[in-house]
Write a structure and sequence with these properties.
By secondary structure, the protein is an alpha+beta fold. Helices cover 17% and strands 41% of the residues. The longest helix has 15 residues.
């Protein structure tokens, strides 16, 4: 890997950032606060990212008690989501995520698997971010799941929740992402916002929540253009400006549903140019239930 210095970082990262600058738009974060989120340095991300981020931004990390990605599931209620329609175990998972253990199975599709391997070699393993399993054996020993609430010391307000997951078999970070609720210009109801810090910027996924008659809950990142839910790359500009690129060709859907007693399951599908390239299946079980069945 070619190192260009602390400001530019590695060549592969710098090239990606130039693509965002050339094809995206330059905006002021004050005018587009829905695109604000944790940004990484050029050295990498890793398990300790949120501890450093909280220290720099005057936030207090809480790791005690039961913590959820959504402390109140009703915060995402809207035109397409009636919280009362969603199965209790699904709501419980989002409100008490730290109490659950996760198992994951992955399947890359056909011609896209070499793309996954290249992504791992060029970016994921080095950055310790977004290490999607390339083989079912990568996730065969399970994963850790750390939920970190970040509170503003002055206002006492929960700012965002970090979710850090590490694969036990490979010791690679599956991902470090921050979760919050926001609204976007192109959608009338609240969206779930997930931010993945990257060198000099981040990847942001804005997902539309929806409840279904069978009690399941889905999150979908798709739209027609900038300002809609979907996938964004951002790169830090000067001061409070960033470069932002909406990637319409990248879409995903997560469906979470009640399964066997006390268990929820999730099917996560990612598309590129309309073709599914990766499927992830999760089993979500309360840690106490796992111990009781052992």
């Amino acid at each position: 890997m070619i190192w260009l210095g602390d400001r530019a970082g590695y060549l592969s990262d710098w090239v990606t950032q130039q693509w965002v600058r050339l094809t995206g738009r330059r905006i002021r974060l004050a005018d587009h606060c829905w695109l604000d989120g944790p940004r990484g340095n050029t050295r990498g991300i890793g398990k300790g990212f949120f501890a450093g981020y909280a220290s720099q931004h005057g936030l207090e990390i809480v790791e005690d008690g039961t913590r959820g990605l959504m402390p109140d599931f009703r915060a995402v209620a809207g035109a397409s989501l009636d919280p009362d329609m969603v199965a209790p175990v699904v709501r419980d998972f989002y409100e008490k995520t730290s109490a659950y253990e996760l198992d994951v199975w992955s399947e890359w599709h056909g011609m896209f698997k070499p793309f996954g391997t290249a992504l791992a070699v060029l970016f994921s393993r080095r950055l310790q971010q977004l290490n999607i399993p390339l083989s079912p054996l990568d996730s065969s020993k399970g994963m850790s799941s750390d939920v970190l609430q970040m509170w503003d010391r002055r206002s006492g307000r929960l700012v965002q929740t970090g979710w850090v997951r590490e694969l036990h078999a490979t010791r690679n970070l599956l991902y470090a992402g921050s979760y919050s609720i926001c609204t976007v210009p192109g959608y009338p109801s609240p969206c779930v916002k997930v931010v993945f810090p990257l060198p000099n910027g981040n990847a942001i996924v804005l997902m539309k929540p929806e409840s279904h008659p069978d009690g399941s809950f889905s999150l979908t990142s798709s739209g027609k253009g900038f300002g809609d839910p979907g996938f964004y790359f951002t790169v830090q500009g000067q001061g409070e400006t960033i470069w932002a690129r909406y990637v319409q060709s990248m879409q995903e859907r997560i469906a979470v549903y009640a399964a066997e007693r006390g268990t929820a399951r999730a099917d996560h599908i990612l598309w590129l140019w309309g073709q599914p390239f990766l499927r992830l299946h999760y089993r979500l079980r309360k840690a106490a239930d796992v111990v009781a069945s052992a």
